[in-house]
Every structure is written in structure tokens, then in C-alpha cells.
Automatic annotation (TrEMBL), chain A:
It comes from the Bacteria. This is Universal stress protein.
TrEMBL record, chain B:
It catalyses: ATP + protein L-histidine = ADP + protein N-phospho-L-histidine. Keywords: ATP-binding, Cell membrane, Kinase, Membrane, Nucleotide-binding, Phosphoprotein, Transferase, Transmembrane, Transmembrane helix, Two-component regulatory system. This is histidine kinase. SUPFAM superfamilies: ATPase domain of HSP90 chaperone/DNA topoisomerase II/histidine kinase, HAMP domain-like, Homodimeric domain of signal transducing histidine kinase. The lineage of its organism: Bacteria, Pseudomonadati, Bacteroidota, Chitinophagia, Chitinophagales. SMART domains: HAMP (SM00304), HATPase_c (SM00387), HisKA (SM00388). It comes from the Bacteria.
């Protein structure tokens, strides 16, 4: 069973990579881990009161949560587990530890560099990910025709 | 009771009771300590008196007496008693009214204390050449009485003064805390049904009061929309019902004002009939709307499958518009069919969804429409997407009000009942309809139905 990491900015767009992942792993169960990268806080007080997850959970929008469940239901025979993890830090060592702890086998690299940070401390981990020595896969999402609102679940639809 | 009084009471109660407890403890321990100190002094006096009165050597007596005279001042009402002890029995003095336990304690532990009002007794066991004696010294603790009285007065004054200060502070405090709420109340009182456009002032801080004001303002927004909707409903309804009636009346008057050919009458009657049918259609949909507006107790609820619902809708649409371009999008269908099981009324849901899809077809001039179905853990989501004329932003809040028609729909026929009806039905199923739209690009309607 492969553990596949997808960097995410909690937009529905990043959920679309799952379609291609499942298509490229036929007959195999995969674990999908959505990683959201956050900088460590600068001030001492923030550091002291920094908790691992609780405060960032509200970054996950309801639509993203719904989208995750939809994807999981759609590919329930192909996806074993689909979870969201926060990566705290911005160094290569921290990332290596994170990848080791999550037992990652494959990293997805979005080909289009679209990233809208949902919070001040979120950042695009693209540079960091491209430097590490894990196997990577570039995925290009096909250009869509007009989508009324990119943030809604309908942008998950494959049709058109 | 007002919150202000409550805050005052809690604040004052807490602080004053703390002060009272502290005062009490201070007094208690001071009192205790002064006793101990006084008993110590009595004990020294008892031993010295015993040494002086019952000396081991005659010469000692003078020395002890000298020490007593020179270094120990007489205590107020100081008295000494010497009681001989023979075989554990004490020869009692008539002037002393001490309990037997006191004597027994002296014999057992070789000293004991006793208090009688302000008079303190200290007894010690003294073994001399003359025999065993109990030496009792008693005195009135004048100094500590004065000291304690002074302390009592001081503590009392302090407690009263601090209580007064605290109550004053409490009044100020509660006033200060509730000031924004009182201001808000004054503002809210000014808002009535005639000036619903008024809003509360929102300050630039991020405290709870600001949150409350924002919440109030949001509520007022919704209220205002609802009010306008209500107003619109009456005017729109009378307009919608009036138009066919005017047509019927006009047609009939025209036919009656002079003799006409039978063909003309038939034509007129046909016009009247079609207008009457339109009227009937409107009233029937109105009735439907009213019925679905009630709670869904009357309807039969059953387990239905949303994919089946979608297919039924598609079939109905195919009958109504044989050349439609409605596609069912399978890309998000869940693999497990139990995720598609919801409880509801098939007919009503079909009606609602058909209305939405018909709108999508109608307002896009038969451009492609896609119906997608997705399932989360808690709800099923049906997405109907068209590439039609869209809904202007300003009209979005009103699209679910009966008879409302968006400003760009004038060239399409319709009454403005379909969407409100769909909304009523979905609400009956505890679901929700979310609309995203952009003018000239299309509309996406998301129907969420809980599992």
C-alpha cells in the first residue's frame, strides 16, 4: 500500500489530483495524505502557546471537508485512507522528519504553481519538496472550461 | 434582577467576603497568640513564686524575692495560691473555684492552664523539701484585652471602609462593563419596522460586544430582506393574478360590445380559456407552495435513493423537452450505494429537482445542463449546472421569494414559483439550496440533502 503525499492549500483544486492518482494506480490501494505547510511562529508567546493541530483545524473549509468525503466515497475501493496533516516548519530537516514519520512513498508535485495561502503562516512547500530525495510525480490538471466558482465542490467534477 | 445588579452583587460579595474572612483570621490568630504569651508569663511567675516561698535553702528565698521585686512588675490583680498535694489529693482553697480536671491535669502533666472570663490561671506542680505543691498564679490579661480591643476596632473600620470602596468600585465596574450593551439597547430600540435600514454602530475592536453588534446587523439584514420579500410578494402576487384576469375581462368586453361572427366568439372564448387556465395554473402552484410551506407531517416519508431520483427527473425532463441536453455527470458518484440512501418524499423531491432543472434549461435556451451527484458522510449533494443567463448578484437574496423574477428574465415566460417551491420542499427535508451564479456565464445550484 502506497502512502502518497499531496501538498494542499485547502482549495478544492488540490483534491482533483486524487483523480489522476487513482487512475495511475489501478488495482492498488493507496493512502492519501494532504499536507498543509505552516511556518513556525516568530514570537515567543506564540511559540509557547503553539499547539500541534487544534488552532489550524479551522483553516480546513467545510467545502474541502465535504470534497474529501466525496472523493473518499467515490474511490472507496481504491483509497484506503485519506487524511489531512499539518507540516510545521520550513527546513529540509523538518520536512525529512515529517516524510519519514508519515512513511511517504510518493510526492505529488502540482505542475501549475497555483497556491493561494489560506492563512498568513501558510506557504507553498513546492521548493522544499523539490529538493528532497523522495520519488516524485508531476501532475498537470487539464485546463477547465469556465467554472462559475472555483472554490465550490462543482470544480471537482470531471466532465466537460 | 438586572445584570448590572448581579455583577455588582457577585463582585462585592466575592471581595467583601474575602476581606471578612481575612479579618476574622487575623483577629483569631492575634487572640490565640496573646493567650499563649500571657500563659508563658504566668508560668515564669509561678516557678519564681514557688522558689521564693518554698526554697530549698533559706537564703535562696531572699534572692528570688529580690529578682521578683526588681525585674517583674506586678500583673493586674495578680494572685498566688499554694496548694499542698498529698497522695494525689489536693487540699483546695476556698477562694478558688477551679474544676477538678484542672488539678488532675497539673498532677499528670505538671502544668495546666485555665481561663475564666478575663482571668487566667496557670498551675504548675512544684516538688520541694516541704512536699509537693500546686502553685497557681492568676492574673487579669489587661494588656492584651486592650490590645485586642484596639485590633478589633481597627479591623472593623478597615472592613467597613474597604466594603464601601468595593461597592463603589463595583458600581463603576458594572456600569463600565455594560455601557456598550446599554448603548446598543438604545440603538436597537430606535429600529422599528418603518426604519429597518438602520444598523448598529460597529466599533473597530474584536471583542464580544462587536461580535454581538455584527450579529445583530446580520439579523437585521435578513429581517429587511424578509420584509421586502413579503412586500414584494403581495405586489407580485396581485400583479401575476391580475394580468390574466385583466386579459379575460378585456377579451369578454371586446366580444360583448357588439354583435360578432361565431368564429370571433370561438376565438375570444379560446383566449379566455387559455388565460383562465394560466390563472388556474398559478393558483394551483400557489396552493402547492402553501402546502409545502407547512411542516412535512402529512407527507409520506420513505427511504429513497438519490440516483434513482436523478434518473426519474431525467426521464420527466425527456418527456417535457424531448430535445434537451441534460446530462447526468457520474464523475463523483460514490461506489457504495448505501451512501445514496436518504429518507424523504420521492414525488416532492422530484418536483423540486425538476423545477430546478427546467429553470436551467429554460434560462439557457436549451444549452447543456449537467446534473451531478456526490455523497459525503452526512449528506448527498446534487449539483445542477447550466450555461445560461445567470442571476444578477443583487437579485440573489430574493430568488427564493414567491413571484420574484430576476431582472434579466423578461424575455422568458415564468411566474416565479418554481424555485420557492423547490426551496420549501428541500427545507422540509432539512436540506439546503446554495446558488452560485454569474451573469452570462451560468448558474450552479447545489442541493444538499441530509442522509
Amino acid at each position: 500500500m502506497k502512502n502518497i503525499l499531496i501538498p494542499t492549500d485547502f482549495s478544492i483544486r488540490s483534491l482533483n489530483y486524487v483523480h489522476s492518482i487513482v487512475a495511475q494506480h489501478p488495482g492498488e490501494k493507496v493512502n492519501i495524505i494532504f499536507m498543509h505547510a505552516l511556518e513556525m511562529p516568530d514570537s515567543l508567546f506564540d511559540l509557547v502557546t503553539y499547539t500541534r493541530n487544534s488552532r489550524h483545524v479551522e483553516l480546513i473549509s467545510n467545502d474541502f471537508q465535504d470534497g474529501c468525503e466525496i472523493i473518499r466515497n467515490k474511490y472507496s475501493s481504491a483509497i484506503n485512507q485519506l487524511k489531512i496533516e499539518f507540516f510545521h516548519g520550513n527546513t529540509r530537516v523538518a520536512l525529512r522528519n515529517f516524510l519519514l514519520a508519515q512513511n511517504i512513498d510518493l510526492i505529488i508535485q502540482p505542475a501549475d504553481q497555483e497556491f493561494t495561502p489560506p492563512s498568513k503562516r501558510s506557504y507553498n512547500p513546492e521548493k522544499l519538496l523539490s529538493k528532497c530525495s523522495y520519488p516524485k510525480m508531476k501532475i498537470q490538471l487539464q485546463r477547465r472550461k469556465y467554472v462559475t466558482d472555483r472554490s465550490t465542490i462543482s470544480s471537482l467534477l470531471l466532465a466537460e | 434582577m438586572k445584570i448590572r445588579t448581579k455583577i455588582l452583587l457577585v463582585f462585592a460579595g466575592l471581595t467583601i467576603s474575602t476581606i471578612l474572612v481575612m479579618t476574622g483570621l487575623v483577629y483569631y490568630f492575634a487572640n490565640q497568640h496573646s493567650f499563649e504569651d500571657f500563659y508563658k508569663r504566668l508560668e515564669i511567675r509561678a516557678y519564681l513564686a514557688a522558689r521564693a516561698t518554698l526554697p530549698n535553702y533559706e537564703s535562696d528565698s531572699a534572692i528570688y524575692n529580690e529578682i521578683r521585686e526588681e525585674h517583674l512588675e506586678k500583673l493586674p490583680a495578680e494572685k498566688e495560691y499554694f496548694l499542698a498535694v498529698n497522695n494525689n489529693t489536693v487540699s483546695k482553697n476556698e477562694q478558688l473555684s477551679l474544676p477538678d480536671t484542672f488539678y488532675q491535669q497539673v498532677i499528670r502533666e505538671s502544668k495546666a492552664t485555665y481561663r475564666e472570663g478575663d482571668r487566667f490561671y496557670e498551675g504548675v506542680l512544684y516538688k520541694s523539701k516541704q512536699g509537693v505543691y500546686i502553685v497557681i498564679v492568676s492574673a487579669i490579661n489587661q494588656y492584651s484585652i486592650e490590645y485586642l480591643a484596639w485590633l478589633r476596632k481597627l479591623l472593623l473600620i478597615c472592613a467597613v471602609a474597604s466594603s464601601v470602596i468595593l461597592i463603589g468600585a463595583g458600581i463603576f465596574f458594572s456600569k463600565y462593563i455594560l455601557k456598550p450593551i446599554r448603548q446598543m439597547m438604545v440603538q436597537v430600540k430606535n429600529i422599528s419596522s418603518r426604519n429597518l435600514h438602520l444598523r448598529l454602530n460597529v466599533e473597530n475592536s474584536e471583542d464580544e460586544i462587536t461580535d454581538l453588534a455584527t450579529t445583530f446587523n446580520n439579523m437585521l439584514d435578513r429581517l429587511e430582506t424578509a420584509f421586502e420579500t413579503q412586500n414584494n410578494f403581495v405586489s407580485n402576487a396581485s400583479h401575476e393574478l391580475g394580468t390574466p384576469l385583466t386579459a379575460i375581462i378585456g377579451e369578454a368586453e371586446l366580444a360583448l360590445n357588439k354583435e360578432r361572427t361565431p368564429a370571433h366568439y370561438v376565438y375570444s372564448l379560446q383566449n379566455i380559456l387559455s388565460e383562465a387556465e394560466r390563472l388556474e395554473h398559478i393558483t394551483r402552484s400557489l396552493l402547492h407552495l402553501a402546502q409545502t410551506g407547512f411542516d412535512g407531517k402529512k407527507q409520506e416519508w420513505e427511504d429513497i435513493r438519490t440516483d434513482e431520483l436523478l434518473f426519474n427527473v431525467k426521464r420527466t425532463i425527456d418527456k417535457m423537452y424531448p430535445d434537451n441536453h441534460v446530462e447526468i455527470d457520474y464523475s463523483l458518484f460514490p461506489e457504495e450505494e448505501e451512501k445514496l440512501q436518504i429518507s424523504g418524499n420521492m414525488q416532492l423531491l422530484e418536483l423540486a429537482l425538476t423545477n430546478i432543472v427546467v429553470n436551467a434549461i429554460k434560462y439557457s435556451d436549451n444549452k447543456p445542463v449537467s446534473i451531478a451527484l456526490a455523497a459525503t458522510e452526512k449528506k448527498n449533494i446534487i449539483i445542477v449546472k447550466d450555461m445560461g443567463i445567470g442571476i444578477p448578484q443583487g437579485d440573489l437574496p430574493y430568488i427564493f421569494s414567491p413571484f420574484f423574477r430576476a431582472s434579466n428574465t423578461s424575455k422568458f415566460k415564468g411566474y416565479g414559483i418554481g424555485l420557492p417551491l423547490a426551496m420549501n420542499i428541500v427545507r422540509m427535508h432539512k436540506g439546503d439550496i446554495i446558488v452560485h451564479s454569474e451573469v452570462d456565464h451560468g448558474t450552479e445550484i447545489r442541493v444538499e440533502l441530509p442522509l
